[in-house]
Amino acid sequence: MMDEFSFIETIKQSTYKQSTLIKGIGDDGAVFRNRSSDIVTCVDTFVESVHFSSKTMSFFHVGYKCLAVNISDLCAMGATPTFYLVSIVIPKSVTNEELTELYDGLHTIASNFRMDLIGGDTVSGEQLIITVTAIGYVPAPYARYRSDAKVGDYIFVTGTLGDAQAGLEILLHNLDVDHKEYFVTRHRMPKINVDFIKNLRTIKRMVLNDISDGLANELNEIAESSCKTLLIEDAKVPLHRYIKQFPKEKYEEWKYYAGEDFELVGTVAKKDWDTVVQCAEEHDITVTKIGEVIDDPREHGSVFMRKNNELIRLDKKGYRHQIGK
Amino acid sequence: MMDEFSFIETIKQSTYKQSTLIKGIGDDGAVFRNRSSDIVTCVDTFVESVHFSSKTMSFFHVGYKCLAVNISDLCAMGATPTFYLVSIVIPKSVTNEELTELYDGLHTIASNFRMDLIGGDTVSGEQLIITVTAIGYVPAPYARYRSDAKVGDYIFVTGTLGDAQAGLEILLHNLDVDHKEYFVTRHRMPKINVDFIKNLRTIKRMVLNDISDGLANELNEIAESSCKTLLIEDAKVPLHRYIKQFPKEKYEEWKYYAGEDFELVGTVAKKDWDTVVQCAEEHDITVTKIGEVIDDPREHGSVFMRKNNELIRLDKKGYRHQIGK
């Protein structure tokens, strides 16, 4: 195994992309200066045999995805990603080549978004564990809070739902299906739409959540934070045409309760809906209106789904990671 | 074990102390706004049976120390701690009571320094692992870089060295010595002098490093970053009088190569030395001048130690964590 002190040295950038960075890796801490934007931070931890295994991901994918999920969180706050810090716990079994591959994954997605690595720690341990802290900038007042939904808002999602779960099932059970690569890539390398989020900054108020733990869970978070009732039309929730080859009861479950699609769900005033649609078109993203924020004082904080003219309460039951070895 | 989703909820603060915080825990990320200071970040990971074990630390101490080491890094950058994010990997064997105790440790030191917890992640895993990302503020131009040492600077350290290592040895080998509690506390609950650092902001240029991996290692980092030669007087390196009960060859080794004292080593212009001494007195801290930055163009980036009129090169050989179960 590589010396625990040297890994961060080997992945240290020789040049930095962000002009607000004053001091990168190489002191007791990094220093940056931003006098105009607000600063957003988030952290996510990736554990071997909980979030991934050698069956589901290569080291490259592990590196790629653990930064992707943080970028997704920043986007859901309306922020542009700028910096990240990474802490890696490395078991003895991991080779230098595998570590380098993991770094390639991190570096590839970081480069795509011009993010700089500004800190890290590497220690030895029994399981491979990666913790990424990501930092982004958002000019006030464009931070997107869950608590900002208002009655009359349209509820929308980007892309299609359940695809990442389909990809995971394919990997775990060696399923032989059509368009395998599409689903597997959705699981391993979530696409994050940073520019889309940036260009939505003409809209003053909007709610965004990234769909990491299932649409039902994210909708409930918006409903609770905003103290509003959310009403969804089941038939509108977008599914990819490829997913229909799976059993219906599967993908109908996945669209609400499967994790890691890293699409966005949000709410926006009716008057701003056209702007969202237009912006999505420019970035080659599909957005779908799936419901409305309604006025129901008895049920503040709840989510309902209309299916075949029946109203069903959509519970929070979130996605639980459990991959195993 | 506690539900992995609920731990961060249970430790979420109901009120926040920092006025620059806009949004704490409860969205996809936290948001803060600081238009006047520079922002410093650092990250540190604590692994069971590498950095601590049940023999050396209670859960309270683990929580306390993993934030303390980050506060120490911020101080060494000249920054005032403000926020932290914590990611915890929790094995099944850990009880709710133990987790609560760990949190008490985190919370105790966070409160002392008015730090707010603004993000976190909890996941299950095989080993107890805590990763803390800390954020601090420093008004320009008072960030303290390793690269700023100048010829003629005095080199100084705070406190006494080797005490934390003595504490660790006492714990690992059940040593029966006098003033046991003093040493053990030095290992478990490092004292960080945030106000001292703050009040030194009348001095425009100074170098600071926290002594986490041994004085020899930190001095070499300053020498290398500044491209200067550092000359230390061995007899001046401060030892606590209690430590002299240990074998001489032990504490003579510890003062240069033992880790985790979390004292500060720095350099400062001669003209500013009195200010440092006075400021230390006000905060009841001892500072000791141990050497000078000298002009030796053949040996830029090196550290020498004078002992019995002999010059000895002080190598970088850093402290390696290895505690075992």
Structural notes for this entry:
- 2 copies of one chain form a homodimer.
- Chain A has 325 residues and is of the alpha+beta class.
- Chain A has helices spanning 7-11, 59-76, 96-112, 163-173, 180-188, 194-199, 215-226, 248-257, 273-282; strands spanning 21-23, 30-32, 37-47, 80-90, 116-124, 129-139, 154-158, 206-210, 229-233, 264-268, 287-294, 303-307, 310-313.
- In chain A, the strands form 3 sheets. Chain A has a 7-stranded mixed β-sheet with strand order 8-10-7-11-9-12-13.
- In chain A, helix 2 runs parallel beside helix 3 (96-112) and helix 4 packs across helix 5 (180-188).
- Chains A and B meet through strand 2, strand 3, helix 2, strand 4 and strand 5 of A and strand 2, strand 3, helix 2, strand 4 and strand 5 of B.
Helical content of chain A, roughly? 25-40%
Task: Supply the helix-strand structural class of chain A.
Answer: alpha+beta
Cα-atom Rg of chain A, whole angstroms?
A: 20 Å
SS field, number of helical segments of chain A: 9
CATH superfamily of the largest domain in chain A: PurM-like C-terminal domain
CATH class of the largest domain in chain A: Alpha Beta
CATH topology of the largest domain in chain A: Phosphoribosyl-aminoimidazole Synthetase, Chain A, domain 2
Distance between the termini of chain A: 21 Å
E-strand count of chain A: 13
Strand fraction of chain A equals: 25-35%
- Give the overall average pLDDT of chain A: 93
